[in-house]
Amino acid sequence: MKELLERKKGLHRKVLIVDDEFIERQMLGAMLSDHYEVDYAENGLEALNMIRDEKLTLSLIILDLHMPELDGYSLLKIIRADSELRRIPVIVLTSEKDAEVKSLQLGAADFISKPYDAPDIIRARVGHSIELAENSIIIHETERDTLTGLFNKEFFLEYGKRLDNQNNMPMDAVVLDINRFHIVNELYGREYGDLVLKHIGNSIHELVRQTGGLACRSGSNSFGIYIPHTDDLSEKIEDYVKQIDDSLANKISIRLGIYSDDENTSDMEHRFDCARLACHKLRSSYLTAYSFYDAKLHSKELHEERLINDIDKALSEHQFKVYYQPKYNIRGDKAVLTSAEALVRWEHPEYGMVSPGEFISLFENNGLIHKLDRYVWNEAAAQIKRWEDNYGANLPVSVNVSRVDIFDPTLGEELLMITKTNGIAPKKLLLEITESAYTDNSQQIIDTVSSLRDIGFKIEMDDFGCGYSSLNMLTSLPIDALKLDMKFIRNICTNKKDFRLVEIMIDIARLVEVPVIAEGVETKEQMELLKSIGCDIIQGYYFSKPVPADEFERFIKA
Length: 558
Hints:
Layout: H1 2-8, E1 14-18, H2 22-32, E2 37-41, H3 44-53, E3 58-64, H4 72-81, E4 90-94, H5 97-105, E5 110-113, H6 119-143, E6 151-152, H7 153-167, E7 171-178, H8 181-188, H9 190-211, E8 214-219, E9 222-228, H10 233-247, E10 254-260, H11 268-280, E11 290-292, H12 295-316, E12 320-329, E13 336-348, E14 352-354, H13 356-365, H14 369-391, E15 397-400, H15 403-406, H16 411-422, E16 429-434, H17 442-454, E17 459-464, H18 471-476, E18 481-484, H19 486-490, H20 496-512, E19 516-519, H21 524-532, E20 537-539, E21 547-548, H22 549-557
Parallel strand pairs: 1-2, 1-3, 3-4, 4-5, 6-8, 10-11, 13-15, 15-16, 16-17, 17-18, 18-19, 19-20
Antiparallel strand pairs: 7-9, 7-10, 8-9, 12-13, 12-20, 12-21, 13-14
């Protein structure tokens, strides 16, 4: 592009004159040499070698049709068939009307009749052809992605809207993403990554060529395809995915989101919003290559976007309510209230009571969970203090510490400030950290948890049995309790494997000398079985579902 812009300023424009007649070459050269750098070739074969060597610097070729070795028609065909050479405009020299038509059909930009016109006319034709070609290249470079040759996103949308306005036909939108493309670059190198992008770009171009429509590279590893609606689109997509899988040496994973609009009721942008949503749905699925949009996805996305946008207002207005579920020590003859877990609910002004299953992972995925965690920590600490003041209760409350919180270097200071502000000891605020968190940069997490224990906090490993902790790791982890995941408790009375797994996990807890908490206990049979194999503390609907703080007071008074 830089060389082209310099040529447009009048610098370095080079013209190649190809003619087997010496005098003809010299006559044309004399007409042009004051305005251009001129090279000469006396036959098509010599010219072809020069064109290939100087393809980046040539601005125009003037070509005689009748030459030995390789004639002008043959050379013109070779130039037009080569994607790198066809950008160079060709003016043919001829005295035959039929030859003019044939040359133009083969891709010639213009022709000069023999005998030659006045020099000014020839220079004007040469200048006009060069200008048209250079403008075409600039437009192409502006509109197209340089690596794949597909439209860039801006022009793709512009031409797609024009297509809609002109044709008014049903169109299908497809969004293609390459899964974990950065890993492809890291494993095989950026050169191979570029090869993958080119290959996918070429295959998309072929798909569009066969079906009509448009395509673009819309991001570093994503593409958009806009094609006329067809009832067998899923079959075409399956064939397309298989073709990509079969043709690349190293396996890559792609996902496609599809919006099929057989009734022609949507505009282009809406179609691609829907296709993108369908593609987004496949982010965590490596078994399914494509997904069609359905209206439920759109409703879900709008609902989630509303929840994300409402979090700050909800926090300031205390729409989030902290519920408490009691934990009972069952080692003695009588179950004794020993602590509680703080669980958050959202009383949304429009949606009513929103389950944490709807918003916890949503906030985690969008970097908002730390806001909610700190809110719950403060609410729980304040409630611990109220129960202490009102009932003299020595009742610790466990709160969740998310993965993102653990990597916050100010975590210890924040938690300590919360306990000091509310006038409680750090050991009253039990910190639940999921087992799976310990596998991510485990040494840093161990260091963080150790520092929290050093300043007085107690740590419970949550969801034990669902992560990947090794026995060796467990012996070195700074924890004060293991909390069994409820999925192992659910079928403990009927499933021998679950029962045996729980037995083993309790044995492990004994080995590392920490108490065991079982959550999700719903029946007396489950409670008695857990007690018989050495479980220390249970939590679940057998004693109570999570309840608001004022309802929880009945457990304190009992």
